[in-house]
Amino acid sequence: MRVDAHQHFWRLAERAGAWPPPTLAAIHRDFGPQDLAPLLQASGVDATVLVQSLPSVAETRRLLAQARTTSFVRGVVGWVDMKAADATDTIADLARDPLLKGLRPMLQDLDDDDWIADPATGPAAEAMVRHGLVFDALVLPRHLRALETFAARHPRLAIVIDHAAKPLIARGVMQPWRDDLARLAALPQVRCKVSGLLTEAGERTGVDPLLPYVQALWTSFGPSRLLWGSDWPVLQLAGDYAGWLATTTALLAAVQPPATAAESAAVLGANAATLYRL
Prior knowledge:
The chain has 278 residues and is an alpha/beta fold. The chain has helices spanning 33-43, 57-68, 87-94, 122-130, 144-153, 177-185, 198-201, 207-221, 241-254, 261-275, and strands at residues 3-7, 47-51, 73-78, 100-103, 134-137, 159-161, 190-194, 226-228.
C-alpha cells in the first residue's frame, strides 16, 4: 500500500482569517477530497493521513467526520491543547473515534520555543500513550532541543517529526539541524517525515539541493523510520503532486547506500501504515 502520510483539507470560511493569506493565491481557496482524489489515482497512492491545520478541537472533529466519508483517508492527526486542565479528558473523548491516529500541537507558531519541554505537557503525552496515538511534531530547527527533552521524558510515545523540521534548504544551512536531528533519531520511538522539503528549498529546485538533507535523514533514521508525505495542498506553492513523488523516488535512489525496492516501498507507504495503524 502506498500512503501519503501528510495532507490537509480546509475551507476558508471556517478559518476566520487564519493562514493561508490571500497573497498565497495558489492555495488560498477551499481544498477537499474531490481535489485530491484524481492526484492520488494518477500517482498510485492508496491511502492518506489527514492532518490538522488549525489549533482547534472543533476542526479535529470536522476532519474526523470528513474522514468517515472519504474512502482514501485512513487516519486523522488532530489537535488538543496539551496544557489545558481537561486535556486528558478531551484526548479520551476524541480517541473513541478509531480514525483518530495522532495529535499535533502547532509548535512552530508558538512564541515559546521550549513549550513542549514543559513538564505540564506530561499528562497529555501519557494519555496519548494510553490511547495508542502518535505525536506529530510540527517544529522548526530551533525547537529540536526542546523536542529531544520531551521525547526522552516519554519513551513510550511514538513521535514523528513533520517536514524534517523544515531545514533551511533555501540558504544551504545544515547545522545545527543535522546534529540535533541525529540526537533525536538516537531515540528509537522517533521517526521523521520526508515531506514539505520543496517549500523550504525556494529557488534551489531539483534533486541535487535536496539530496544532502535527505541523506542526513537516511543516515540518521534509516529506511524503517522515514515516511513520505506530500504536504498537499501546501505543496502547490512549490511544485505538484506527481512531481514531488517522482523527486522523492529519485532521492531514494541517490542516497548512499541507495534504497532497495523494499526500502523504498517502506518509506512510500508501509512505515506510515504501521506507525498510524492504518
